[in-house]
Amino acid sequence: MEQRFPDADVDAVYRAIHQRRDIREFVPGALPDGLLQRLYAAAHAAPSVGYMQPWRLLHISDAALKGAMADIVEAERQRTAAALPSRAAEFLKLKVEGLRSCAEIVVVALMDGCDKHIFGKRTLPEMALASAACAIQNMWLAARAEGIGIGWVSFFEPADLAALLHMPEGAKPIAILCIGPVAEFPAQPLLETLGWGTRLTKEQFVFENTWPADALPTPTAY
Ligand SMILES: Cc1cc2nc3c(=O)[nH]c(=O)nc-3n(C[C@H](O)[C@H](O)[C@H](O)COP(=O)(O)O)c2cc1C
Question: What is the pTM of this model?
Answer without folding.
Answer: 0.97
